[in-house]
Design goal:
This protein is α+β, with helices and mostly antiparallel strands. Among the domains are: 112 residues, no CATH class; 87 residues, Immunoglobulin-like (Sandwich), CATH 2.60.40.10. Strands 31-38-37-33-35-36-32 form a seven-stranded mixed β-sheet, with no helix packed on it. It is globular and about 70 Å long. Bound molecules: copper (II) ion. Copper (II) ion (CU) binds next to loops.
């Protein structure tokens, strides 16, 4: 099926007449914002004439989005300004039950969410789900989901910070708050439990006291930390927010155990890190790089630390919580910007790809050395020295694992993508437009999908802290075998800074994050369910039945060994694929990985598969195993675990 031109959005005239009806209703009964769960959204009031709306329309938005969507946005701006004027009046009536609205009243949230729902439905009607997949669910979450990890139990760990703000025109994160209100929070979502509030479980981080002069115990403020999986399925989380100075690093070193669903705290790192990156190498140890130090924003640390310290064993068994410090890696990583992209490629080396073009390095985990890579050849706009946060992936490299990395997002003026392969950079085919704060997923068939994205940090195209977004960033985008990109259906919320997405074992994509947009669009903001989640079903879930994966080994698998799986549809299976679980934040996911497995034998309902040749191809740990048919439709995944014969073994 080919892409069909999107049908026209709902016309302004239709919108105005709908509002006129709402206004007539309002005249006879009191039409005021319902804000409890389950209440229907209130229709917007007819405050503006068609001429007023047309005068507000921006030609650039008409060019980018078409007239109808531009008129929606114009309407939203008028309503926003009117609401602000209303609440600014002395003695303005406030909603007594809900409390002060901080200048951003619930009717705006209701109206804005309804606009996003309508425009999503209208746009996506033009996309055939058999070709482009389909957005299916949108539901509230008790966490913003600024950090995410798909755990080997199938549950999703979400974490961020305790809510401090209900007004999305103000900074929503406690970055500059010092003391008890600089606090973290974490939840598990169990996809098997569905989309209700009962599908979530609070898993609060340990109480910590930070050296911030306040002597206040609070749940660890681990937001804006870095994280990666350990070989035993636990998540190592490093850094966080000390508070103040525009982003000062905490020294925190934490483990989340997916099996007991508990956090533990390890001895602190030697430096504070706010916005560090963490990568797990072929030896199962984690390298922690960059991050703003405890002296605040503008002081990124060059110190590289390793977890666990070399004097401690790599945790391999699920029951083995590592109680270990970090130690210092011999080479430094003098990134001048935070959240570098880090990848462990199939030569066993760590590639550190900074946001600044000339900070591209290769680290040898054994020799503890750093060598220079060529500068990335992108042309940043005049006066700009580094890319913004944006997605990057280790490109699938078949049975031998990835040998190259693709830089995608991070420059809103440059839609091109840049490939580092064999020590050389090349410019690759562009996406439809440059975007920052995006996430690019490697799907089971090895093709790429981009979700999320924005104009800038806290700026959705109409200025900072204005939740009114340039809606083009809601488009998904897909890369085919030839490297060509095409736009796909749109998500409901524009999600930029702090957005995330994971591929679930059943093949669906779960999208969350961006607390600013969540609080701008959630009429139940004060209910505690102040984040939101969206579910997208890729096209492979709309193309008939799926191949079956019935059973896979539950014990550890060593490298370069054969193992058997069973399938009820063995004749349909043409590929077997390992997909590493996603753990991401700020467009950084160092562990995402796609590795093909050779099918070396078939006998009845049994398939014989070959594990990757060595740990450099696929670092030890848990992977989703998918069986695919000839059209790329995957089975539901089973978890398998790769392990060296001796823990902490060589590369
Ligand atoms: Cu952040």
């Amino acid at each position: 099926m080919s892409r069909v031109k999107p049908s026209p959005r709902i016309k302004l005239t239709a919108l105005l007449s709908a509002c006129a009806i709402a206004s007539a209703v309002a005249a006879t009964s009191s039409l005021i914002a319902p804000s409890r769960a389950g209440a229907a959204p209130a229709a917007p009031r007819a405050q503006f004439t068609a001429a007023q709306v047309r005068a507000e329309v921006r030609p650039a938005e008409v060019r980018a989005l078409g007239r109808d969507e531009a008129e929606y946005l114009a309407w939203g701006r008028l309503e926003y300004r009117a609401a602000q004027q209303q609440t600014a009046k002395p003695g303005a009536r406030r909603d007594e039950e809900e409390g002060p609205d901080n200048g951003y009243p619930d009717p705006l949230r209701i109206r804005r969410l309804e606009m996003l729902r309508q425009t999503q439905a209208a746009t996506n009607a033009a996309y055939d789900s058999r070709v482009f997949g389909k957005f299916t669910d949108y539901f509230p979450s008790p966490d913003y989901g600024d950090h995410i990890a798909l755990l080997p139990t199938g549950k999703v760990l979400l974490f961020s910070f305790e809510a401090i703000q209900t007004d999305p025109t103000q900074e929503p994160a406690p970055t500059n708050i010092i003391g008890a209100h600089n606090a973290g929070r974490a939840y598990l979502w169990d996809p098997k439990e569905g989309t209700k509030p009962t599908a979530f479980k609070a898993v609060p981080p340990p109480l910590v006291n930070l050296p911030d002069g306040k002597n206040a115990l609070r749940p660890a403020p681990f937001f804006c930390a870095g994280h990666a999986f350990l070989p035993n399925g636990m998540l190592g989380v490093f850094g966080g927010n000390l508070g103040g100075n525009g982003g000062a690093g905490a020294h925190l070193s934490l483990i989340f155990d997916p099996w007991t669903e508990q956090w533990t705290r390890n001895p602190d790192m030697s430096v504070g890190r706010w916005y560090p990156s963490v990568v797990t190498g072929a030896d199962g140890r984690q390298l922690i790089m960059s991050g703003q130090s405890d002296l605040g924003w503008g002081t990124p640390t060059p110190v590289v630390e390793r977890f666990p310290a070399k004097s401690h064993p790599v945790p391999v068994n699920p029951g083995e919580v590592p109680h270990a410090p970090v130690d210092r890696f011999r080479a430094d990583a003098p990134f001048t910007t935070d959240y570098p992209q880090l990848f462990s490629l199939n030569d066993g080396k760590i590639y550190g790809l900074g946001r600044t073009p000339n900070e591209q390095w290769k680290f040898d985990p054994k020799l503890e050395t750093r060598t220079d890579l060529p500068p990335r050849p992108d042309q940043l706009p005049a006066g700009v020295t580094a890319r913004n946060y944006g997605s990057a992936v280790a490109l699938p490299g078949g049975y031998k694992g990835p040998d190259s990395a693709l830089i995608l997002g991070g420059d809103r003026t440059d839609p091109n993508t840049y490939l580092l392969s064999g020590g050389h950079w090349s410019k690759q085919k562009p996406r439809a437009f440059g975007r920052t704060q995006d996430d690019t997923l490697i799907m089971p068939d090895g093709l790429l999908m981009t979700v999320n994205g924005a104009f800038d940090i806290r700026d959705y195209g109409n200025g900072p802290y204005n939740p009114n977004a340039d809606l083009k960033y809601r488009h998904t985008e897909f890369r085919d075998e030839q490297g060509n990109w095409r736009l796909g259906p749109v998500q409901r919320l524009p999600r930029g800074y702090h957005s995330n997405a994971v591929i679930l074992p059943d093949g669906r994509v779960m999208i969350t994050g961006d607390e600013l947009q969540s609080i701008a669009n959630n009429p139940n903001i004060k209910s505690g369910m102040n984040g939101t989640i969206e579910i997208y079903e890729p096209s492979y879930l709309h193309n008939g039945t799926r191949p079956d994966l019935n059973a896979a080994p539950t014990g550890s698998l060593h490298y370069n060994k054969s193992f058997t799986v069973t399938s009820k549809t063995p004749d349909r299976v043409t590929r077997a694929v390992l997909l590493a679980p996603i753990t991401s934040t700020h467009s950084v996911d160092t562990g995402q990985r796609h590795v093909e497995l050779q099918i070396t034998g078939r006998s009845g309902g049994q398939l014989t598969l070959q594990t990757p040749p060595l740990a450099a191809a696929a670092p030890p740990g848990y992977y989703m195993l998918f069986l695919l048919d000839s059209t790329g439709v995957p089975s539901v995944a089973k978890w398998i675990k790769l392990e060296e014969k001796q823990s902490g073994g060589g590369i």
